[in-house]
Every structure is written in structure tokens, then in C-alpha cells.
Amino acid sequence: MNANADKSPAEHLLTPVQFLKGVGPQRAELLERLELRRAVDLLFFFPRSYQDMSELRTVQQLEENVPVSVCGVVEEIDERNTGTGRSMLGVLIRQETQFLRSLWFNQPHMRQKFAVGQRVVLSGKPRLNGLRWEMTHPRVEILAAGEDPPSGRISPMYSLTEGLTQPAMRRIVGSIAESHSDAVEEVFPESFLHEKKLLPITDALRQIHAPDNIERLEHARRRFIYQELLFMQLALGLRRSKLQQEQRSPALPANAKIDARIRRLFPFELTGDQQQAIADISHDMQREYPMNRLLQGDVGSGKTVVAEYAMLLAVAHQHQAALMAPTELLARQHVRTLARDLRESRVRIALLTGSLSAAERRTALERIAAGEIDLIIGTHAIVQADVKFKQLGLVIIDEQHRFGVNQRAALRQAGLDPHYLVMTATPIPRTISMTLFGDLDVSTLKQTPPGRQPVHTYLGEEGQREKWWEFFRKKLREGRQGYVIAPLVDDSPELEIQSVESAYENLANGELEAFRLGVLHGRQSSEEKEALMQAFNAGELQVLVATSVVEVGIDVPNATLMTIEGGERFGLAQLHQLRGRVSRGAYPGYVCVYASANSDGAQQRLQAFSRTTDGFELAESDFQMRGPGNLFSLKQHGLPPFRIADLTRDFAVLEEARADAQQMLDAAPGLDAEELQLLKQRVLLRYGGAMELGDVG
Ligand code: ADP
Ligand code: MG
After folding, report:
1. DSSP code string of 95-162
2. Which residue's CA is the nearest one to ligand 1's atom 5?
3. Which of 252, 268, 532, 659 has the most other CB atoms within 10 Å of its CB?
4. Which among 95, 123, 157 is the end of a domain?
5. Domain final residue pick, 157, 190, 225
6. Is 199 contained in some domain?
7. How far apart are CA 42 and CA 74, in angstroms?
8. With a 6 A CB cut-off, is 270 part of the ligand 1 pocket?
9. Are 20 and 64 contained in the same domain?
10. What gap in Å lies between CA 522 and CA 533, rounded to an integer?
11. Residue 695: pLDDT above 60?
């Protein structure tokens, strides 16, 4: 009789691993390293891959490039250095009288896995080299003494930790899946499982750990991927409705008169996308809870005018609007644009940045608090504690992903939140805007303003430099202007300045000696930078030699030329931002990017960069190349990592889950329906803390 017999199913699931069959205190310690503490943790510890043992073959049966598994005994191990720090490991496997050689390049750590006489299973694609079969970088499973290769089925492969072998892990999890899967409650109503063709939880757990065949395995994996993405979408939906219920904002509706008064100020016709974005924003701002909108548009797509409309809508209702830029240079540029458009209106603008003198700052703060300023343009200085607004109705954040809960709290006043508009030219892949930013509404500017000329992008070849500079000079003589971007120097502002200054010296005494050059970098004072930009804007300077400080937002339509040095050091998004500086006017732009060192990754990136000027396409390829982890990690946003879903792979499922979550929340707001209680509880358990959804239940 089992000592646990009188426990409830839920208690069973919480059994510490130590007391499970085949575990014990020592293995429990190893499992602890993988954060596996209770039976249920093991049940939901999904395999990271599978080995298809139904494909177990003899060496005679091998076919060129057809993936298979081969079982044999390690006969010989040889390790070689092939010069220049590269290493090669060869492991010869004997199967009766036949041999297979496996190879690893530059993976010296593989050596310690093997010992002569061991039985192993290798899985991979075989290749015939002369008369001998070889496999490069096969997957390896070492069999314990006396253990048979798992045959005729698909074997799970788990993440391991030192001291825990794959067969041991398989036995432990396999036996828990057998004994405990029944105890897991189904979160979905029967009808839902049926409608979505989802495998019921007990089956799904058994199949994912011990699949009967590929089809059933896929069915099980699909259930868990879907469930994981649905949970996240439900959590995002719950958060959205919670915010809508709890937060209050002033209603700032547009009407025909206000609309006409604002549009009259713009020097051009708006594009269709700009019109649509304005319609979206007006719709949001008329409501009594905060707008939470992301305006994304490629560089030069014309986001500023949309922001301007939103700000003036707030002003029309006697509210203040604040615009936060990532740099002082950009803040000043926004002030210039606004001052130009508003020169004949009574709208009052103030600049609020870190470089104001104490007295200037005091005056600005007093006027803002007294309501004598309508538009506050600045840097993060805007969210400092001593800034008191008279009546803040709207906050716009330009080009800045990090704007957290704390900053928002600082801007809330007398129980009222301003409306929020976040602008970005780094297009956010759809997968990300649907997950990490899943509670933002999104408007997208895809069209470019009329009259834009194309930008031509070239990958520079060292031998052709002279030709490029000749072209550069020709265009300068025709009246155009240009940028030269010096290589990025990581983590060392001093070296970066050296790099940009030596580039300047070389050009001023060489290729561009006949022209008026300026040098721009991050260490200059804001006055210096501003003066340089003014001079460049006015055409007094023809070429700016700069660090990537020109990357974001700078708008000088006559600048159409750009040389990028050390292109391999920039990310795709950054390169695209840089290129955006020369695609703003009535003349075509020309970019030539040189790489001073070459890696495969850099080559791939630069190729992608020269192939298309569509920022959205680039963002997607960046996402595919680098994976979601590097761009926007769940962790960085305080969210638990996915167990099985993969945003680069599971996009279709994500879209489905999103639509389903929406539908469920529409039908049962707050998931408050009898049959959804368990589901709701689980969603809150997983995301409640991270998303501040409040307590479970
Ligand atoms: P971004 O989206 O990169 O912030 P901007 O708002 O700076 O782009 O706009 C880029 C340039 O395009 C600016 O010079 C702006 O005046 C101009 N522009 C924006 N919208 C239009 C339009 N509808 N028609 C003509 N020019 C426009
Ligand atoms: Mg901009």
C-alpha cells in the first residue's frame, strides 16, 4: 500500500522530488539545480528535443544525408589542433565489423564525454568520405553499462546538469508522467478542448514525455505551446481591462473646429497613414482612461506631425502636453519644428533638459506649474520629481523603449493619468508587439511622405574607395551635404572620440580637404552640438564627421550622402537608423558602408541592410537572425520565460491565441465565468505577480 494513497491529487503533485520513485536525496539535489523541486515541476519539464529511435540503423543501411541514429562502441578517440587555435575531435564508433567516424570542430569540451569501450547512440546526417561513413556534430547519447538503446520509439532529450545522465532523467520523468499525469486538472472546459482540437492534459503530458508516434507528439506539443501563449494573452487582456477600470484620464475629444484649427498649421498634406494614426489617437484621447498607444513608423515616415496633432488636441482643451526625446539634440530639433509651425499661434513652448542653468530651470518649472507653458519639450529631465505640471493631459515618448511604471507614477497627478503615446522608428516585430507590448495599441506609418527619393546602399569594397569619394565630392559640389560615421567603439567614450577625431583629421587633410567639415560626438556640450547642427542645417558645414549620435531623428533634408566606417560593429536597426538621415528630402540618398573586419554574422547583416530599405522587413530579419532573446527578452520585462513556445517559430499559434483570448475576455470579462475559474487561477498564478494583476482568485 502506497503511503501517499490518502493524499488528494493536488497534494500528490506537490510531493517533493526526493520522495519520488527513482530519485532520493542525492538526485534531488541535482534536480534542484534545474529548479525541479516538486512532482509537478518534473511533469512540466518538457524535453528540449527528441531522438527518433525508430530510425536506429546499422552502418550498412546508411544513406547519404538521410538523418538516422546509429548505436555502437567507442573504438578510438583522436584530438587534433588544426592550427590557428582550431581543434578537431574524431571519435570512431564500431558496430560489429563496421565503422562510423564522428567529428567535432572547435568543440574541445566534447572530448570529456567519451571513453573507449562506451556504448553510444549517435544521431545525425551521415556522409560517405571515401569508403568511410562520417557524421559531423551528431547528437550523442551515452548508454549506461548493460543498457539497451531505446528502440522503436521517439526518445525525449532533457536538459541535464552535471551528474545526471539522459537515461536517468528519462526514467525519472517517464515514471512521474506515468504515475502523476492523472492528477493534473484540466484547465480548459471540455467544449473548448473539443472546439480547438486540443489534446486533454493527461494525454498531452504522457505523450510529450513518452510519445507513441510523431503525430501524437506534435498534437501534445501543440497543446502546450498554445496553452502557454494563450495564458500570456489572457494575462495581457486582464491587465488591460484592469488599467481601464482603475485609471482615469481627462477626456480630450477632437471636433471639427479643433481639427481644422490644428491642420491649418501643417505645411503639407498628411499621408493616409498619418490621417489614420491621428484618427486612432483622437479616438483614444476622447475616453476617460489613458491612451496607451505605440506609433511606429520607419525613419522619415513623419511621426512628428502626428505627435504635434495630439499635443495640440490637449492644448485645445487647456491641458499641457509633454514630449520626451532621448537626447537633448532631438529635443531641440522638436522645439524648432514646433516653433516653426506654431509661430502664429498663442501656444507657449518650453525646453526642459539637463543642460539648463539653475536659474533657467527654476523659471521654466515655475511657468510650467503656473500653467503659463502649454508644451514642454525635453529629455528625461521632464520626469524628475520637482517638475509640477498645472494640468498634464498627454505625454509623448519619442524613441525610447524604457519608460516604466515608476516614471508613469511620477506623472500621475491628483488621481489622473495623462494619455500616453510612444513613438518608435525601430519597428517592433509583430510577435513582440503582440506579447511584450501586448497591451499597447499600435498605429503604423507605412507610407512615406510624397516626393521622397530612394536611398541607394552600397557595400564598400576597399579597392573602390577612391571611386566612392569621387562621387561623394561630386555630389557635395552639386550642393548636397553628407555624413561620415566613424566606427562605434564599445564602452569607451574616449576611444570613440579619438576615432571620430582622427577620421576628421584624415578627411580634412585628404579626401575632403576642399570642403567645410564639422565633427560631432557625444562628449561635446549641448551648446556645441546645437551650434554644429545649426551650422549644418544652414549649409555652412557641408559634411559632419560624427559618431552614431546622429543616429536618431536628426532631420536635415539636404543631407543625402553617408559613409559608414566599421559597419560590422553596428546592429541592423542602428544601420537603418543611420541611413534614415539621408532619406529625408527631394534628392536621392547614397550610403556606402565599409566593414573593417568581417565575421559571418556581420556579413549577413550588411547584406540584409543593402538589400532592402524597408525597416519592417529589416526588423523581421534581425529578429530571425538574432532571435527574440537579444532584442527584447521576457526576463528584461520581468516576465517568466516560456517553457515550450518560441516566438520566432510559433507566430501562427500566437495570432490564434491572441484572437481566442480576446474572444474569451469579451464573452466573460475578467474571465469571470464558472467554467473558467481554474483557468483564471492558473493564469494569475503564472503572470499575476509580473503583471501586477493582484492576488490569485
Ligand atoms: P520621423 O518619423 O522619422 O520622426 P519626421 O516626422 O521627422 O519623421 O518627418 C520627416 C520629414 O518628412 C520631415 O522633414 C517632415 O517635415 C516631412 N514630412 C512629414 N510628413 C510629411 C507629409 N505628409 N508630406 C510631406 N513631408 C512630410
Ligand atoms: Mg522623429
Report:
1. ETTEEEEEEEES-GGGGGG--TT-EEEEEE-EEEETTEEEEES-EEEEEPTTPPPP-SSEEEE----T
2. 302
3. 252
4. 157
5. 157
6. no
7. 32
8. yes
9. no
10. 13
11. no
pTM for the predicted model, two decimal places: 0.71
Q: What separation in Å is there between the alpha carbon of 243 and the centre of ligand 2?
A: 28
- Mean pLDDT for 66-74 is 89
Which amino acid is it at 359? Answer: A
Distance 632 CA to ligand 1 centre (A): 28
Instruction: Locate the ligand 1 atom nearest the alpha carbon of residue 306 and give its number.
Output: 6
Q: What angle do CA 218, 220, 226 make, to 5 degrees?
A: 95
Q: Are residues 43 and 146 in the same domain?
A: no
Q: Is the CB of 298 under 6 A from ligand 1?
A: no
Question: Are 460 and 571 contained in the same domain?
Answer: yes
> Ligand 1: which of 270, 273, 304, 422 to mutate, most ligand atoms within 8 Å of CB?
304
Give distance in angstroms: CA of 617 to centre of ligand 2: 19
| Residue 182 CB coordination number (10 Å) | 12
Question: Do the domain assignments include residue 658?
Answer: no
- 562 φ/ψ angles, rounded to the nearest 5 degrees: -150, 130
Measure 343 CA to ligand 2 centroid, in angstroms.
20
What would the mean pLDDT of 333-346 be, rounded to a whole number? 92
Count: domains in the chain: 4
CB of 271 sitting under 6 A from ligand 1: yes
CA dist 5 and 12 (Å) reads 9
Which runs of E-coded beta strand occur in 217-339? 292-297, 320-324
What is the C-alpha separation between 210 and 204, in angstroms, rounded? Answer: 10
Beta strands in 384-535 (DSSP E): 392-398, 419-424, 441-445, 455-459, 481-485, 517-520
Most confident of 51-60, 88-97, 575-584: 88-97
Range of the domain at 4: 1-48+170-180
Does 343 share its domain with 260?
Answer: yes
- Which residues surround the ion ligand 2 when the cut-off is CB under 5 Å? 553
Q: Is the CB of 584 under 6 A from ligand 1?
A: yes
> Is the shortest distance between the CB of 427 and ligand 1 below 6 Å?
no
Residue nearest to atom 4 of ligand 1 (CA): 303
State which of 301, 443, 537 you would mutate to test the pocket of ligand 1, scoring each by most atoms of that ligand within 8 A of its C-beta: 301
Q: Ligand 1, residues 584, 587, 613: which to mutate, most atoms within 8 A of Cβ?
A: 584
Which residues make beta-bridge pairs with 591? 457, 562
Strand spans (E) along 452-588: 455-459, 481-485, 517-520, 543-546, 559-564
Q: What atom in ligand 1 is closest to the CA of residue 271?
A: 23
Q: Is residue 31 domain-shared with residue 90, that is, in the same domain?
A: no
* Whether 328 and 412 share a structural domain: yes
Contact 16, 38 (CB under 8 A): yes
What digits encode the pLDDT tens for the residues 4-36? 456 777 788 999 999 998 899 999 999 999 999
Does residue 497 lie within any of the structural domains?
Answer: yes
> Is 672 within a domain?
no
In angstroms, the CA 402 to CA 485 distance is 26
Same domain, residue pair 152 and 266: no
Q: What pLDDT digit, counting tens, does each position of 171-191 carry?
A: 999 999 999 999 999 999 999
The closest-lying atom of ligand 1 relative to the alpha carbon of residue 270 is: 23
Same-domain pairing of 365 and 479? no
Closest residue by CA, ligand 1 atom 16: 302
| Residue to mutate, 274, 295, 298, 305, ligand 1, most ligand atoms under 8 Å from C-beta | 305
CATH number at residue 416: 3.40.50.300
Q: Taking Cα atoms as reference points, which of 473, 440, 457, 439 lies closest to residue 609?
A: 457
